Amino acid sequence: MVIKLLILFHYFRKNIYMHKTLLLFFGTIFSLTISAQNLVVNPGAQSLPRGTGWTVVSAGGTTCIPSPTNTFLNWTMIPDGDPLLYPWDHTIGGAGGVTFFSGCSVANRGPFELRQDIDVSGDAADIDLNIIEYNFSGYIQTPVNNQPGGQTDQGRFIVDYLNAADVVIGSSYTSSWQSYALGSGATWNLYTNTRQAPVGTRKVRIRMQTQIFANTPAINAYFDDISLVKINLLAVTLVSFTGVANDNNVQLNWKVSDEINLAQYQLQQSADGINFNTIA
Fold first, then answer.
1. How does pLDDT run across 123-161, given as a tens digit for each residue?
2. How far apart are the C-alpha atoms of 51 and 4, rounded to whole Å?
3. For residues 64 and 93, what is the distance between their CA atoms, to the nearest angstrom?
4. Cα separations (Å) of 269 from 19, 172, 241, 266?
5. Backbone φ, ψ for residue 126 (5° rounding)
6. pLDDT at residue number 204
7. Beta bridge mates, 104
8. How many whole angstroms from its chain centre is CA 65?
9. How many CB atoms neighbour CB 108 within 10 A?
10. How far does CA 152 lie from the centroid of its chain?
């Protein structure tokens, strides 16, 4: 991916035609996400104590008795990989591990919700310059297909962008409800969304929701491997740029940080602001 940042400065000198000098940042970014940090705490439900990093807004209120749902604690469950009823853990690809699970309930209840607020205020300056995107991803499995009436338990993701007053700004990402009856199959399904953070964003809230219908008591919608990754839209951060007119010349000075696979800098000059020639 090629990234270009164009910054136009105007210098005026008495009795001299206006000079327009362009600093062109030119860089090739091989990948911004290979080593990017996942901002989600406890993304695969594996951390102890179980439920670390997440806030239980609501969960099923019925005691889970059958194995493995009897391992339910703080919106998590240790699955046994039963191919007819319960999922394999997506993180490790086998029995054991831990998945997100909203518990057990009487029929026709929900939505039940688990959420996590991620503080992105450290990116405030770049967010408000519209140069930050966040990539969300997560998995849902709804494997149970034997519910009466054909309507099966379902789950979905919601991602909100909040300002400093915890008010949702811009449009949220809301996945479709996933259920076996709606064609999910019994496998894990990936949901992703990449968007530019709205100006004023200071938190990103990730929400998992479930609903139960006729087949009680387990709420058969499972979640795993949740991710939120920051993507810088520029290959470099411009710290400062100054210019000083000196006779017929202009001395330019710039300072940058956070270079990512930046190939080169180019200086271009134009007399009309339309056609530019490279001068350095």
1. 999 999 988 999 999 999 998 887 666 678 999 999 999
2. 43
3. 24
4. 8, 42, 16, 10
5. -70, -35
6. 98
7. 62, 218
8. 35
9. 11
10. 28
Listed residue (202, 204, 201) closest to 173, CA to CA: 204
The residue type found at 259 is E
Q: How far is it, in rounded angstroms, from Cα 69 to Cα 241?
A: 60
Residue stretches of the chain with pLDDT short of 70: 1-35, 83-85, 147-150, 233-237, 258-264, 270-275, 280
Give the global pTM: 0.74
Cβ partners under 8 Å of residue 111, min gap 6: 58, 209, 210, 211
> What's the pLDDT tens digit per position in 217-241?
999 999 999 999 999 766 566 777 7
Question: Dihedral through CA 120, CA 125, CA 126, CA 128, nearest 10?
Answer: 90
The DSSP 8-state label assigned to residue 43 in this structure reads T
* Burial annotation 210-240 (CB, 10 A radius, 16+ → b, else e): bbbbebbbbbbbbbbbbbbbbebbbbbbbee
Dist. CA 157–CA 202, nearest whole Å: 20
Q: Which residue has the tokens 């000196």?
A: 246
